[in-house]
Write a structure and sequence with these properties.
TIM Barrel; 12 helices; globular; binds flavin mononucleotide; alpha/beta
Length: 347
């Protein structure tokens, strides 16, 4: 029995968002003590056999933290200490916003899943930028996931994404364009081919100017929903390819409620965790096929152990991310996954 088997029932007695905030607070505090941080870090090996080169970046290992876990960069060092090769911070919007009314996160324990309708609560771009500048950990790739503000219309969305690209260009190792959260009205419409092409080519044009001015090349990924039909995925991949984006994150949470048992399945929002896994893995396989394996894919959706990650790699992912798995399996999950992925690892 692990320590987390003792702690989890206590955490699960709290409201899920409260438990999450407490966890972040503890990780944030742990990261502030150099001794704890170095002990945490030392307990994770760095194995040259697990490094991954994707979209021009060298990742120390293939496992990352998915967006939404640390939206405001409150626990960057503590999370890096858990062994992640990359952390995707955000979703951040240009201005601070409070998100939807609480409660807005629900545990479906019977299904090992969560439903959330957070609606991008965050402290805004300037705050996250300051956190990254202050707490940047060594040897870990930092991505920033960007989204439009709730008050910004879909027609004006590009302005928000451009402002965020400008703000984070010099600090983020990569940017992730979030057009797939189900909790910001209209956001998913940006996945339609014409809109997507318009948005992404605007971002690509701005990046070209920044590169020409000597600011370096920052890869941009696009995060997709698992609820797109194959035809819609084909169109989205077309727009992503033609605009010169560097990769795809597959996937965000789903609106599907297929096969759930927990009574909380009636809650509105995006579903994550174990039931999302087959859907996300299938989207990875489809995107890999549609793009002839040329577009790097970051897998996310119900990764709870090394075997889930391996299935995503087999489907075509270069990297994988976790969120809900951390809630159910605890903070040693990254280590367990990475150990299981070692060429001689077992699980
Ligand atoms: C509470 C919660 C908040 C999330 N917030 C964001 C977010 O702000 N931006 C985003 O792109 N994805 C967000 N996600 C989606 C995750 O990044 C991930 O794509 C999804 O949960 C699937 O992975 P998982 O099954 O490992 O959780 C959120 C997920 C959860 C559970």
């Amino acid at each position: 029995m692990s320590l987390y088997d003792w702690i989890r029932p206590l955490l699960f007695r709290l409201d899920p968002e409260q438990a999450h905030n407490l966890t972040l607070q503890m990780l944030g505090a742990a990261g502030e003590f150099p001794v704890i941080e170095s002990v945490l870090r030392r307990s994770f090996w760095f194995d040259p056999r697990t490094t991954v080169r994707a979209f021009g970046l060298d990742f120390p290992n293939p496992l990352g933290l998915a967006a939404g876990y640390d939206k405001d960069g409150r626990a960057i060092r503590g999370l890096a200490g858990l062994g992640f090769g990359h952390l995707e911070l955000g979703t951040v919007t240009p201005q601070p916003q409070s998100g939807n009314l609480r409660p807005r996160v629900f545990r479906l324990t019977q299904d090992r899943a969560l439903i959330n309708r957070m609606g991008f609560p965050n402290a805004g771009a300037d705050n996250l930028l300051g956190q990254i500048q202050k707490h940047r950990p060594k040897g870990v790739i930092l991505g920033v996931n960007i989204g439009k503000g709730v008050e910004t219309s879909v027609a004006d969305a590009a302005e928000d994404y451009l402002a965020l690209l400008d703000t984070f260009y010099d600090e983020a190792d990569y940017l992730a364009v979030n057009i797939s959260s189900p909790n910001t009205p209209g956001l998913r419409e940006l996945q339609e081919r014409d809109r997507l092409e318009g948005l992404l080519s605007t971002l690509a044009a701005r990046r070209r100017i920044l590169v020409e001015s000597g600011r370096g090349y920052v890869p941009i990924l696009v995060k997709l929903a698992p609820d797109l039909s194959d035809a819609a995925l084909d169109e989205a991949c077309g727009a992503i390819g033609s605009s010169g984006m560097d990769g795809v994150i597959a996937t965000n949470t789903t609106l599907s409620r297929h096969g759930l048992r927990d009574r909380k399945r009636i809650e509105t929002g995006g579903l994550s965790g174990a039931p999302l896994r087959p859907l996300a893995t299938e989207v990875i396989r489809t995107v890999h096929g549609l793009t002839d394996g040329k577009l790097p894919i970051v897998g996310a959706g119900g990764v709870f152990g090394p075997e889930d990650a391996r299935a995503m790699f087999d489907a075509g992912a270069s990297l994988v991310q976790v969120f809900t798995g951390l809630v159910y399996q605890g903070p040693w999950l990254p280590r367990r996954i990475l150990e299981g992925l070692k060429p001689d690892g077992k699980d």
